[in-house]
Amino acid sequence: MTADNRSKVLYTVICGAGPAGRIETFVTLANERGWEVCCIATPAAMTHFLDLSDLRELTGHQVRHDYRREGDESFPRADAVAVVPATYNTINKWAAGITDTYALNVLAELTGLGIPIAVLPFVNTALAANRVLDRSVDELRRSGITVLYGPSGFRPHPPRTGGTALDRYPWHLALDALEIRLPPVAAAVIVENAKVLLVRRLVQEGSLSWQFPAGEIEAGESAAEAAVREVREETGLSVIESQVLGERVHPSTGRTMIYVACEVVSGTARVEESEEIAEVEWLERGQLGEYVPHGFYEPVQAHLDVLLAMNADDSQRSS
Ligand SMILES: Cc1cc2nc3c(=O)[nH]c(=O)nc-3n(C[C@H](O)[C@H](O)[C@H](O)COP(=O)(O)O)c2cc1C
Prior knowledge:
InterPro entries: Flavin_trans-like (IPR036551), Flavoprotein (IPR003382), Nudix_hydrolase (IPR020476), NUDIX_hydrolase-like_dom_sf (IPR015797), NUDIX_hydrolase_CS (IPR020084), NUDIX_hydrolase_dom (IPR000086)
GO molecular function: hydrolase activity
Radius of gyration: 23 Å
Cofactor: Mg(2+)
Bound molecules: flavin mononucleotide
Helix content: 25-40%
Largest sheet: 7 strands, mixed
Shape: elongated
Keywords: Hydrolase
Order of helices and strands: EHEHHEHHEHHEHHEEEEHEEEHH
Pfam families: Flavoprotein (PF02441), NUDIX (PF00293)
Number of strands: 12
CATH superfamily of the largest domain: Flavin prenyltransferase-like
CATH architecture of the largest domain: 3-Layer(aba) Sandwich
Structural class: alpha/beta
Number of helices: 12
């Protein structure tokens, strides 16, 4: 989720090269990782590679290729941009400041706004041998753009082997690169009376269904402050931080997560933000496997093991 609780929006700029014919692979992967995808196509991508109606159905949005006309939908604001596949033509024109396609104009503006952008080229070794491509890649990198080109990114293939190169096109690299640049998320781990507080979001985050109350850390906020605020906003419960349990890149969403153990001060947990949260539940240890089948991050699990055992002892003593 983003700071203002929208799902995160990924503009996907599609240029006219082979992988454009398989763009559904990328959209599906991005959806699985919790992105809402809005596609922008170059004229060459439109003419040679895309099935617009399929893509519209898959993304839930029109595919934009030109300036907005009356009746066209307006896209939600972009949190990040992926240029997949990026052609020799678009990379060189973008770096040279040319905006003679709608896609290039969007790229120029979003570059200027400092929105995170990842570029995954698809070029053969004949095009790659032109010095201008290296100059353009360097120019874009200087503008803060992540160009996934070279040993740890896309490696050019020999001419006439583009067909086989498609099978190993590393789509995931564009998402990995963007997710690292999004603000980290603070999650609140709260145990009371031998139960853990979990929420279910209206919009599923990747493969996650039930999860800790959580949200993006805002500018000037610590992880603990963000966790306490998110619990209040999502469930109405007032909590204080007791301990930061650990930090990791989440294997399902790719987001940096900071887990903060919190203690309840006052209030009753309920759905406070109904446009974002569907359900709030206090769960016993025995229910956790069913609600969170993929398990918890190790330091979080260790914390839960200790507290759930302690709380269970307490509640047995008091009953
Ligand atoms: C079938 C086909 C395959 C192409 N493959 C590539 C490619 O792999 N890489 C590339 O940079 N251009 C490739 N092109 C050329 C681009 O489509 C062409 O340079 C076009 O002007 C790119 O425009 P765009 O950058 O606005 O999408 C291909 C064109 C066609 C028709």
